[in-house]
Amino acid sequence: MPTTVLTQEQTKELLWQVLVELLEERRSEFHELTMEAIEEVALANAIRAGRNNEFVSEDQIRAVLEA
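Structure (tokenized):
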């Protein structure tokens, strides 16, 4: 079996074509994957922000929820 050697530019072009084809043929799956990634980043940012703020008592939380 012959071996094919690709240049860096050819490899980049091939990967770009694969990505475009993936987006065209599996748009809904790609959208779902992207949304999950965004949600994970947002959750991580919220956790980080929460660690930098003062803690709130359980009574304060209940008062807000019951209002």
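The mean pLDDT is 89. Residues 27-67 form one domain.
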